[in-house]
Amino acid sequence: IVPSVLRELIRTIRTARTQAEEREMIQKECAAIRSSFREEDNTYRCRNVAKLLYMHMLGYPAHFGQLECLKLIASQKFTDKRIGYLGAMLLLDERQDVHLLMTNCIKNDLNHSTQYVQGLALCTLGCMGSSEMCRDLAGEVEKLLKTSNSYLRKKAALCAVHVIRKVPELMEMFLPATKNLLNEKNHGVLHTSVVLLTEMCERSPDMLAHFRKLVPQLVRILKNLIMSGYSPEHDVSGISDPFLQVRILRLLRILGRNDDDSSEAMNDILAQVATNTETSKNVGNAILYETVLTIMDIKSESGLRVLAINILGRFLLNNDKNIRYVALTSLLKTVQTDHNAVQRHRSTIVDCLKDLDVSIKRRAMELSFALVNGNNVRGMMKELLYFLDSCEPEFKADCASGIFLAAEKYAPSKRWHIDTIMRVLTTAGSYVRDDAVPNLIQLITNSVEMHAYTVQRLYKAILGDYSQQPLVQVASWCIGEYGDLLVSGQCEEEEPIQVTEDEVLDILESVLISNMSASVTRGYALTAIMKLSTRFTCTVNRIKKVVSIYGSSIDVELQQRAVEYNALFKKYDHMRPALLERMPTLEREKGVHLIFRRVHVWGKVNTLYDVENYLQILEINGFHAVLFSTGIPSITAYNKNGLKIDFTFERSNTNPSVTVITIQASNSTELDMTDFVFQAAVPKTFQLQLLSPSSSVIPAFNSGTITQVIKVLNPQKQQLRMRIKLTYNHKGSAMQDLAEVNNFPPQSWQ
Amino acid sequence: MWKIHFILLFSRQGKLRLQKWYTTLPDKEKKKIIREIVQIILSRNQKTSSFVDWKDLKLVYKRYASLYFCCAIEDQDNELLTLEVVHRYVELLDRYFGNVCELDIIFNFEKAYFILDEFIIGGEVQETSKRSAVKAIEDSDMLQETVEEYMNKPAF
After folding, report:
1. pTM more than 0.95
2. What are the helix and strand counts (H, E) for chain A?
3. Based on the domain organization, do A563 and A445 belong to the same domain?
4. CB pairs below 8 Å between A and B: how many?
5. A37-41, A237-241, A583-587, A690-694: least confident range
6. Rounded Cα distance, A269 and A694, in Å
């Protein structure tokens, strides 16, 4: 049976009215093709593979035709080769071992007497050649790169590009062949040569330096293209070979980057292209676009740069969306380096926030944030907040983050800053990123004079709606911290509201109960309630009750907190005020939050259980718990007869060999120790400096301490050892003691 | 690097008419990408630009009669020029087939590939002359041994 021709099959399949009918036809045809392949029939192999390729395009499997493609490639008939190579490009790739069988055929065909066969081989190699194939055949490609046949030369150039991309080490071998590539008149060869040169320059700084000398020639070629008369072969809407023009502009960009001489040599031609290119059609704008990118990237004169930015400004006003799109993309690239020039187009950019195209909106948003500064922040934030309100959900998180950042940098006043944050939280409160919450908390903490205003606004915000988690988290924290200001109506910025302690607890409890609240949010709410136990006066019993109920919560996190807070009420009630007192203003140092005033409280909290408790409270407040401002553990250097001396350590920021030791001497006996003198000695390789003590009297009953600072210089980073001598008067007698301190922690001297 | 990663031609009903890949991907992955991109582009309305940010690439697309032409380019490539590349390919098809329509591409898909391969290799333009590219195809057609299968002028 003679297999049907391709067109017949296509016609038949197109008559199928259902997917099932089509599938049945395909299966029938595939079965016929398979048995035909089995018969090893040379005559109809081509026809069958062509049909297989059609079915492959419809989505059906065709892998059983892979070997047949190879047989077609090996055939002497041009028709076979044409379909064979097409099939190889569609059905094979480097991941199948069988593709390597092509290598020999391709090698032969690269040397074929017919250029169209050579062309097929070059094209296939250049599209899908694997690294192994490229290695094997690079030599053949290099030969063809030097041929005078322009039809083959242009294909060889792109084949070489592919080889270099697959096996970068082979780049060197193509260098000699590039010698006179640009002397060609043929545009195809010129274009592909420029592509090849570009690839080489991008991959190797040496190549780049070597090819800089081509700048004058490239400039000449570009000039000829612009000045030459109408050439029907290469004309596009009155412009001669825009593809070549753009590629030359791109190569010039790479060569001119960071090089004054090259940049100067191309200055004139760039100005010429920028001013003379016809802008009525897309093709002209494509060239202008590339020109602008080149001008901005090389070391161009300021006049040229202004010209480029103005072109972009005109692009922004173009009716064609595509032109506006590329304008925004380019302005985004240049806004850092040419900030003032881009600022001039700010209002047009802001208008693009209202565009219907999502990509244009996104770029306009990014550009808007880049343009915010101290002078325009109020106006810009207004526009961006409006945008936040109306934009698609995919933008809201980025927009919110951007507004927070800009507000932090340029807020004209603390009130404005808080208001802006409030606006974002209430507008897009569920899109705000998780890391924004601790940042906002820190911000609020440090805006001391705005506490009453902030807590009032946040309270009002969640009163109606407590579904937006980041908003609720910040609000809960704030209420827990400043609830006392809320109920005492201390707000000055706006009319203070009347709210009772019970009403405040109502809302926090609602958050706790609500199934809209995330586990984290509930943690915030519970901690807030707990903190209010030291700020509220009438509702402590209610708080105790709430806390005890959650001691049996199914939520493990909540349960743990509740249990610890219960313990705080029962066993550590004396510590509760100190632990829950207002957070001090915080310094941020290298991403770690340091807490200062807590250090002395830590001195009183010394069981592991208490440490965890303390850490919990800190973590709920969004801080990474770093208890010691230095991180080096303290030691008890001496503890005898009621006299205890503790050492705390700090390393100098400026001199790594210096350790600063602060000693604290305390007295647990019933009588004061007077005329207290502390002396210390260190081994020879160290140096010691003793500063004046705070006093000479250590009061009894641990009611006060003497502190003194010691500076130790340890240039050889040896293990720190110290001999101390203590003299004082106690109970009428003169006391004296000597001791060795050997338990210095390694972090204090290493 | 600036290069075209792949080119897709599909109808308004989402039927694939041509797929040219200049990067190596498993068949399954290609199918998934095609489904995704066809859906994205078919859902775009008239008021949008011709460019879509997709993963770390950009899609440049244009509709000619009943066919969508879609090119995936690198992020830093020149989108406006890519529109010209697409347009040039359409012109080449038109010159070869004479007033090309979707049916030409369906019934002579292998020719559509041959023409593309004379215009682009490895994701880069190889020939900027309309005349040269089409002449190469016509000369190659002349070399074919069997005439009734692959006639110059399509018959369907």
Report:
1. no
2. 33, 12
3. yes
4. 173
5. A583-587
6. 77
B7-49: per-residue pLDDT in tens? Answer: 999 999 999 999 999 999 999 999 999 999 999 999 998 888 9
In a domain, A612, yes or no: yes
Question: What CATH number does the domain containing B99 carry?
Answer: 3.30.450.60
Q: What digits encode the pLDDT tens for the residues A278-312?
A: 899 999 999 999 999 999 999 998 899 989 999 99
pLDDT, chain B, mean: 91
Angle at which helices A242-256 and A187-203 cross, to 10°: 30
Q: In what order do the strands lie in the sheet with B57-64?
A: B16-21, B4-11, B67-74, B57-64, B51-54
Confidence class for position A660, pLDDT limits 50, 70, 90: confident
Structure tokens that stand for A240 in this block: 């001669």
Whether residue A422 is found in the same domain as residue A539: yes
Looking at the structure, tell me whether residues A537 and A686 fall in a common domain: no
* C-alpha distances in Å from residue A369, one per residue of A353, A395, A403: 12, 13, 8
The rounded distance, in Å, linking the Cα atoms of A507 and A647 is 47
Select the residue of B17, B80, B136 nearest A289 (Cβ to Cβ): B80
Q: Do both A419 and A470 map to the same domain?
A: yes
Q: How much is the pLDDT for A633?
A: 80
The overall average pLDDT reported for chain A is: 88
Please indicate, yes or no, whether residues A508 and A562 belong to a single structural domain of this protein.
yes
What burial class does residue B100 get, using C-beta atoms within 10 Å of its C-beta: 0-12 exposed, 13-18 middle, 19+ buried? buried
Q: Does the distance separating the beta carbons of B128 and A282 come in below 8 Å?
A: no
**A743 falls within a domain:** yes
| Inside any domain, residue B156 | no
The interface predicted TM-score (ipTM) is 0.95
Specify the number of domains making up chain B: 1
Q: What CATH number did the domain enclosing A423 receive?
A: 1.25.40
Residues in B closer than 8 angstroms to A60, CB to CB, are none
Please tell me whether residue A695 adopts helix, strand or coil conformation.
coil
Tell me how crowded residue A391 is: count the other CB atoms within 10 A of its CB: 20
Q: What is the pLDDT of residues A183-200, one digit of tens each?
A: 999 999 999 999 999 999
- Domain region containing A658: 608-748
Domain count across chain A: 2
Same domain, A617 and A554: no
The span from the CA of A272 to the CA of A200, in Å, is 28
Angle (deg, nearest 10), helices A115-128 and A78-91: 10
Answer yes or no: do A286 and B140 touch at CB < 8 A.
no
A653: in domain: yes
Residue of B nearest to A119 (CA): B118
CA distance to partner chain A, nearest, from residue B118 (Å):
8
A442 plus A524 within the same structural domain: yes
Residue ending a domain, among A562, A579, A596, is A579
Question: Is the Cβ pair B121, A78 closer than 8 Å?
Answer: no
Cβ atoms of residues A10 and B106 within 8 Å: yes
What's A42's DSSP letter?
A: S
Close Cβ partners of A121 (under 8 Å, ≥ 6 residues apart) = A85, A105, A106, A109, A110, A112
CA–CA dist A513, A521 (Å, integer): 11
Token representation of residue A748: 């204090």
Do A458 and A399 belong together in one domain? yes
Q: CB of A633 within 8 A of CB of A745? A: yes
Q: Which domain holds residue B146?
A: 4-151
Chain B CB contacts of A83 below 8 Å: 110
Of A530, A558, A579, the last residue of a domain is A579
